[in-house]
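Quick one, probably user error.
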């Protein structure tokens, strides 16, 4: 899969994209990740990328005659058709389901929005989807772009240690529950010990215990996920 991230701040991506699961996805060859500097497509001698909104409003907007050519450049440099995503607090919610759907695409172009937003014509001309990572406002789309790349790359086949690891993640479980608590060594710490059932090797009892814990935790923390 190819992901191109178009951004005013390419430096912000180096640490995150060179570590951990994203790095592994790149090394396995499953992910070809490129960061494209939007400034290179800026207009005029100052390579301007933003301007004042018509009609008066606070802040600046990314210009369509900068963002559209940048995305078209990305499209031209890859063989497979791309799905274009604009990061925006007004977008549809980024969920595990959307991450899974995106992980099955061949080519994504993520435009990290900045300032107060992007000229509406970008969305219309590129048939782009606006995507939000949550109901809060960040100063820019770089962190949302990193969040999406991270969540998508770990779902690419062969990237996690076992293809089963992603299945038990909270939000990926077929039953829609959160994962329950987990324990590792030591068995006893301060006055807290690992539940006996997890150490007794009865796989059926362990599965039942985990299911009950997942159910209780989901009820307590995310009642919106529980149907009954
Ligand atoms: N840009 C600013 N806030 C955002 C959010 N919550 N999600 C996506 N893009 C954003």
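Nope, works fine. Designed sequence:
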């Amino acid at each position: 899969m190819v992901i191109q991230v178009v951004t005013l701040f390419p430096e912000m991506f180096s640490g995150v994209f060179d570590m951990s699961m994203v790095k592994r996805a790149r090394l396995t060859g499953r992910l070809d990740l490129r960061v494209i500097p939007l400034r290179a497509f800026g207009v005029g001698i100052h390579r301007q990328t933003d301007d004042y909104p018509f009609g008066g409003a606070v802040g600046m907007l990314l210009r369509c005659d900068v963002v559209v050519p940048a995305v078209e450049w990305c499209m031209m440099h890859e063989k497979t058709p791309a799905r274009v995503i604009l990061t925006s607090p007004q977008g549809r919610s980024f969920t595990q389901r959307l991450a899974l759907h995106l992980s099955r695409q061949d080519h994504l172009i993520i435009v990290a929005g900045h300032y107060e937003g992007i000229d509406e014509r970008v969305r219309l001309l590129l048939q782009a989807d606006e995507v939000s990572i949550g109901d809060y406002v960040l100063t820019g789309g770089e962190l949302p772009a990193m969040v999406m790349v991270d969540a998508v790359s770990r779902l690419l086949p062969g990237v996690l240690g076992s293809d089963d690891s992603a299945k038990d993640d909270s939000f990926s479980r077929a039953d829609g529950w959160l994962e329950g608590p987990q324990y590792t060594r030591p068995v006893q710490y301060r006055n807290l010990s690992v539940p006996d059932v997890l150490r007794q090797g009865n796989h059926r009892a362990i599965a039942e215990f985990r299911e009950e814990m997942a159910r209780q935790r989901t009820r307590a923390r995310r009642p919106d996920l529980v149907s009954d």
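Residues 87-89, 113, 132-134, 136-138, 141, 144 surround adenine (CB under 6 Å).
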